[in-house]
Amino acid sequence: MKQLFGIPVAMCWTLSVMVLALTGCAALPHDPKETYILITSDTRLPYWQGMLAGLNRAASELRVRAEMDGPENYDPQAEYDAFQKAVRRKPSGILLWAVDAKLMTPGIDAAVAQGVPVITINADAPDSKRLLFIGTDNYKAGSEAGRLAIDLLKERGNVVVFETTAPANANLRLAGLRDTLSKHPGIKITNVVDVKGDPTVAFDSAKRVLDSKDPVSAFICISATAGPEVGEVVNREHLAGKIAVIAMDADPRTLELIQKGAVSASVAQRPFTMGYSGLRYLDQLHHNPPNPLNADWARDPSSTVPAFIDTGTFVITKQNVSAVHQQAGT
Question: How far apart are CA 275 and CA 46, in angstroms?
């Protein structure tokens, strides 16, 4: 693919459209009482703190208010309750991690019907009336993890996968991973562990696999929760470099384990970018809402609203982890 300044031309086009859309916000009249809310689950995770930083950066530039709410632990029902509470406040817009799309869809539709713009972020609810989805192309992220495994295993080995099945993004990652590995019959997925967003489950499951003495060549963690825990198990068992560990995202513990060699690589998303661009798009939708707000814009060829904005991924290895540490300020 042709590149411009090291960036694929197709991506340059996508980014240029985003820049044009986002910079238009500068001309909008802003009320300092405008409030944009990010609703998620597991708010204690560094991932969401990174997204909140992006949200706050955009809010500072636009001189509006930004908040994050939701349970500290992985709890879809508590997240739904936080979303409902936010809707009752009638904010200028809501960013929502649709951790359970089926649970969230009726609430999203009701919020949009009341005139509250909702953008899904990180995990989508594609059958809802959300205005658009901002996040990772999760099928591609799963494929990237698969390609890393192929390179590390030299076409042969048994793989155990760790995921959290509830969010639709995890299922897409697993599909991308399976499809990529299926072309290499020497590599077999022997088990898929649902960690249910619980780091303890990830740690204990990895320990059981190793204690069982069943042959395993790699652990692939397509759930960010699992990566640091699985890497820690491998590190404690002195198996760094002997069992490949592929993680998700740039959790500080994951970065430390990459430096130690216990985690081989991580497919990192861009939560800061999601929060930053998410608030700016909500701002556009608040000031220039499509009419009607709750139309099926995702299936309208003349829609002024994009259906999906891919914020991209990048791979972290021992070669670039120090630079990532510096950029993240960790």
Answer: 13
